[in-house]
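Late entry, written up from scratch paper. The run itself happened at the end of the previous shift, but nothing got recorded in the book at the time, so transcribing now.
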Amino acid sequence: TSHTVASVRSFEKIFAREIIPSDTLEDTLYSLRLIKNDYEVDCIIKAQRIAQKAFDEILKFIRPGVSETEIAAELEYRMKLGGSAEPSFGTIAVSGEKTSMPHGVPGDRKVKSGDFITMDFGAVYRGYHSDMTRTVAVGNVTDEMKNVYDTVLNANLAALEKVRAGVKAADVDLAAREVIKKAGYGEYFTHSTGHGVGLEIHENPNISFKNEKILENGSIITIEPGIYLPGKFGVRTEDMVLVTKNGCNNLTNAPKRLIII
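Output as recorded:
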């Protein structure tokens, strides 16, 4: 992996030292950042708790007539009040047919009864990021919506079951992908199952069927399968977990059952 000038400057600020990019630095940073120490884990958990509190609060805010932009702004406001230095990334809060876009941008669209709303967001605490996604429904859901939601949830659970130090990243991705494929939605899962999280929102390892590297004890990764039906709706469910020798510790304890507001 390579680092941008911005990321090097960020490291200089964090470590209060001048950093001179080199191949040796690259290898050292990769190994250091792949495995989190107790302090780093604690910071990431704190960031996650801030985000989860905002999620609990946003459920009381969402109703027909509010816009995606208002939901995104309210999430970021609530995280700021909770102690977040800034959002982990540009908050995603999209509704209705826009949930079929994995990286949709919040806009003026107003929530309607019968919509799915996908919220992908995170907080930053002492330089460390969190990342979570939940999809909720407003008013009611169709049988198709419920089936897609349950399929994504089952894919999330299958991948979590596979996570363990010594397992290939590819095998975790494939565990989620197989569930979605068997349900007939394989072509609609269009991104990797997850990624590392830490001082940056996207770090190694990449949880992709292309990545044959093994997971390391102490890494923090996301598990975020999704199904996106163009022009209709999409669902993504994302947890952030700490890889352990015997499995993983799920750092995201927000509910995953389908929430209908």
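The mean pLDDT is 94.
(Scratch paper discarded after transcription.)
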